[in-house]
Write a structure and sequence with these properties.
The protein is 31% helix and 31% strand. The chain is of the alpha+beta class. The radius of gyration is 18 Å and the shape is globular.
Length: 210
């Protein structure tokens, strides 16, 4: 079911979907593509993958009132067939996030709160980023930085990005929601990203545009 829907600017739609429907309930949303999708998901061996596929298409239909297909290029970046709107998608355990924008390139990421983040932080954060991480709410702070780098990566047209060496998070004070900044040193543009974030009970979410 649609968990939340809002506009973070006049040209965008930001939405969360709680994935609690059965495959049949999801398929019932479609008029034109129901038979096509029923056949297509039969090729997926895992239920979770089928649910994510169908939920993303249902979500797009609910938000835009269309059954346009979500396509992916060779790097996995999504686009909407026959629609110039920009799209970014992310999912975690039980939830799917979608960000749409009329013209700006967008990136969104959600991450479930898991202890694993403590074991892998040295793989994607610099020593300075770790030093600036809050000890009081360390898991949330680490996850937000990981999620921010995922969102930044999605907004870049660049392969072979090293999250630790090429993407950098500026220090920020952790709150329940807010804005912080990141930058990249991989390209000649040296893009600086304004990133929005929100902390939920079970996951964190970061998104932005450029």
């Amino acid at each position: 079911m649609l968990f939340s829907k809002e506009h973070f600017d006049d040209d965008s739609i930001l939405a969360l979907w709680k994935m609690d429907e059965s495959e049949e309930e999801l398929l019932s949303y479609f008029d034109i593509r129901q038979a096509e999708y029923r056949e297509y998901i039969g090729k997926f061996p895992f239920k979770k993958r089928r649910q994510e596929f169908l939920t993303s298409r249902v979500m797009l239909k609910v938000l835009l009132d269309c059954e346009n297909e979500i396509c992916h290029d060779e790097d996995g970046k999504p686009s909407i067939e026959g629609n110039p709107m920009k799209i970014s998608i992310s999912h975690t355990n039980g939830y799917l996030a979608m960000l749409l924008h009329s013209h700006a390139i967008v990136g969104i990421d959600i991450e479930q709160k898991r202890e694993k983040i403590f074991r892998v932080k040295n793989r994607f954060l610099s020593t300075d980023e770790i030093a600036h991480t809050s000890h009081k709410n360390e898991m949330d702070h680490l996850l937000l930085q990981w999620s921010a780098k995922e969102s930044m990566f999605k907004m870049m047209n660049q392969r072979d990005i090293d999250f630790q060496q090429d993407l950098h998070i500026e220090p920020f004070i952790l709150e329940d929601s807010g804005i912080f900044y990141g930058n990249e040193s991989k390209t000649e543009e040296k893009i600086r990203f304004e990133l929005y974030y929100r902390i939920y009970e079970d996951f964190v979410m970061v998104w932005g545009k450029r």
